[in-house]
């Protein structure tokens, strides 16, 4: 066994199917100011009514185009930004507005893996002290034990424990991402937000990191929120998939159903862009090309947000916001056409 | 999980997950006990790197020699810097006066050594004050958004103050009061150092603020926040080490400015008493007689330049040594 930090070893015993993280109608609006007096003239609706459920021990993939609020959603869940509305429930507890000591304790259970392996490690610290930082911060382990734990973590992510004395710049992108993963694992968390962990890596390394994440999930019974725009990786790693567009979740459901039979026109368009590794199928593949640009999140379209680019929009879409409804097969969708 | 033993067992490549076969390097298979290297003290790394920077070592040597000469010199060369000898006015270098004498026949070597004590002390002390203030205000404004407005306006206020009138007023008001508490020499030293320090932190604060704003957005700061690190520890652990380079550079330049500023003050009659030698004062006193006896300006000029240059090189070396990316 690994020497695990004393804090947080007690895990609530629960069935495999229950919800670890539930997000209800989460909003985050960044205010914008204008004029000499700095009057507030509106807000960037970065996250605007997101509903998600992440089940214990499983992986939820959060996909969407750049600028749609995926990363912001991940950061709000970790309380790196304060939400302006909605609820975040983690392990049955409302953590939307907790502060101080309670928040600090909660932070140990939720960790994050970052997109840019170059920027997520402090260039002035050795790898050992980077990984030991969470342990120091939560006074989990001391002296020899801490050192041992650091070495074990390096070992767990497939790096030589001898690397503890080196600096981040001596490593390749993939290795640096492993260091970031080791840091996230240090406090033995339940839940990890993976914020596009493979987007900055080249393809041969992507597979290694994704497989490492998979192995670690089994070993430590982790729950992931996997933010990505790589639909084939999401298909490989995630059990559930949520599709986000302009600050809102459009569709949420089990992976196989979503990939086989997407209900939302945006999901259909996204999936039609994934190339198929079979020349005959690939040649016959019909792509749905969306027209226009992503509207500004400061001034989203009325009704359904996707209506300006939707190939099947009709007059009701402009008038009425589609409700977040549960449909057959444990999936959720927000579209008038899906009724 | 991870019994360390199992890691070392040869694994069938076909069975092993990709993550374990593809990245492990050849040395990873060695027994872990052999690999136990104690964490190395980072101070030694810095020192090792500092030693490889030739300019920095030379600078440190020169600075050391100057400091030793200035501190212990007067005990060896026991000529009073205030002794007036009208028989040897404006004399060139001789065995009796190795650096020559000034217009009143005072021994220049003795005056240089006494003056150097003050000049270096003023330079270092004023620099420390200005680094401290500049870094403190720069970090606070850069890191805490709510302090940005008020503190930067304060910085602008200080920048817009006319220095000389302010100095005149400050010296007029406080000289006697401070002298009463600390005595004449120490009193004017404290006053000059604090005035120079308080008037020169603004540039530093602006540089540091800009750097902090950039570092604050980096993901490792975000990562530290997600762990639950409180702001003051994030600043000490992540922000300050990464804004070190500009601080060191402007600090080393600041020493030069402080020495010059002190000489300006003395020239205006605001610094130390007129008979009290400092490098800046010697320089200004000598300007009148420069064409008759150039050694009067040559020695203090050389001393100031050498000090500034050596401190600059030391700063350079430190900056490089503190950056792990440039090490080895």
Automatic annotation (TrEMBL), chain B:
Its membrane topology: Multi-pass membrane protein
Record-given protein name: Peptide ABC transporter
Transmembrane annotation, as ranges: 56-77, 118-144, 156-174, 186-208, 247-272, 292-315
Alphabetical list of PROSITE patterns matching this protein: ABC_TM1
Residue ranges occupied by any ABC transmembrane type-1 domain in the UniProt entry: 116-315
Record organism: Mesorhizobium wenxiniae
Pfam families noted in UniProt: BPD_transp_1, OppC_N
Keywords: Cell membrane, Membrane, Transmembrane, Transmembrane helix, Transport
Family: Belongs to the binding-protein-dependent transport system permease family.
Cell compartment(s), UniProt: Cell membrane
GO biological process, one term: transmembrane transport
Cellular component, GO annotation: plasma membrane
């Amino acid at each position: 066994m690994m020497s695990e930090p004393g804090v947080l070893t007690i895990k609530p015993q629960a069935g495999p199917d229950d919800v670890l993280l539930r997000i209800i109608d989460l909003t985050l609006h960044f205010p914008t100011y204008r004029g000499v007096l700095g009057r507030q003239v509106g807000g960037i609706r970065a996250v605007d009514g997101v509903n998600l459920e992440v089940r214990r021990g499983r992986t939820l993939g959060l996909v969407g185009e750049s600028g749609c609020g995926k990363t912001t959603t991940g950061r709000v869940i970790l309380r790196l930004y304060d939400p302006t509305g909605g609820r975040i429930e983690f392990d049955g507890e409302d953590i939307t507005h907790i502060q101080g000591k309670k928040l600090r304790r909660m932070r140990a259970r939720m960790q994050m893996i970052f997109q840019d392996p170059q920027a997520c490690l402090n260039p002035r610290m050795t790898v050992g002290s980077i990984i030991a930082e969470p342990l120091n911060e939560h006074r989990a382990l001391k002296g020899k034990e801490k050192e041992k734990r650091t070495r074990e973590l390096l070992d767990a992510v497939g790096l030589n424990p001898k690397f503890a004395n080196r600096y981040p710049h001596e490593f390749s992108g993939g290795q640096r991402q492993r260091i970031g993963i080791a840091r996230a694992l240090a406090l033995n968390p339940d839940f990890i937000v993976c914020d596009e962990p493979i987007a900055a890596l080249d393809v041969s390394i992507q597979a290694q990191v994704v497989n490492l994440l998979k192995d670690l999930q089994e070993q430590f019974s982790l729950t992931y929120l996997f933010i990505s725009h790589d639909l084939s990786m999401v298909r490989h790693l995630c059990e559930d998939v949520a599709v986000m567009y302009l600050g809102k979740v459009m569709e949420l459901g089990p992976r196989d159903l979503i990939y086989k039979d997407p209900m939302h026109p945006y999901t259909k368009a996204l999936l039609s862009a994934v190339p198929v590794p079979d020349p005959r199928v690939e040649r016959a593949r019909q792509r749905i090309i969306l027209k226009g640009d992503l509207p500004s999140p400061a001034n989203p379209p009325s009704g359904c947000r996707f209506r300006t680019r939707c190939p099947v929009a009709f007059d009701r879409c402009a008038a009425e916001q589609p409700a977040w409804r549960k449909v057959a097969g444990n999936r959720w969708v927000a579209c008038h056409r899906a009724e | 999980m991870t019994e360390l033993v199992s890691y070392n067992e040869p694994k069938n490549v076909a069975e092993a997950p990709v993550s374990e076969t593809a990245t492990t390097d050849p040395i990873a298979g060695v027994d872990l006990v052999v690999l136990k290297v104690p964490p190395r003290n980072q101070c030694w790394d810095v020192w090792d790197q500092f030693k490889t920077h030739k300019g920095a070592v030379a600078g440190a040597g020169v600075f050391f020699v100057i400091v030793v000469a200035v501190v212990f010199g007067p005990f060896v060369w026991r000529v009073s810097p205030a002794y007036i000898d009208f028989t040897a006015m404006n004399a060139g270098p001789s065995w009796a006066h190795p650096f020559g004498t000034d217009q009143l026949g005072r021994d220049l070597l003795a005056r240089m050594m006494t003056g150097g004590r003050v000049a270096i002390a003023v330079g270092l002390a004023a620099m420390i004050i200005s680094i401290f203030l500049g870094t403190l205000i720069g970090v606070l404004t850069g890191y805490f958004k709510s302090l940005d407005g008020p503190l930067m306006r304060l910085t602008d206020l200080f920048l817009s103050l006319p220095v000389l009138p302010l100095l005149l007023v400050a010296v007029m008001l406080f000289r006697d009061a401070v002298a009463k508490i600390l005595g004449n020499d120490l009193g004017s030293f404290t006053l000059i150092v604090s005035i120079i320090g308080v008037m020169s932190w603004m540039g530093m604060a602006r540089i540091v603020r800009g750097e902090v704003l950039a570092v604050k957005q980096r993901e490792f700061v975000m990562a530290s926040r997600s762990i639950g690190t409180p702001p003051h520890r994030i600043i000490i652990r992540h922000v300050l080490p990464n804004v070190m380079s500009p601080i060191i550079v402007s600090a080393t330049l600041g020493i030069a400015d402080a020495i010059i500023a002190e000489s300006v003050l003395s020239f205006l009659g605001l610094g130390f008493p007129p008979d009290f030698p400092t490098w800046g004062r010697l320089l200004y006193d000598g300007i009148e007689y420069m064409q008759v006896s150039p050694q009067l300006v040559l020695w203090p000029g050389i001393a100031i330049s050498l000090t500034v240059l050596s401190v600059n090189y030391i700063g350079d070396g430190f900056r490089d040594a503190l950056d792990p990316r440039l090490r080895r």
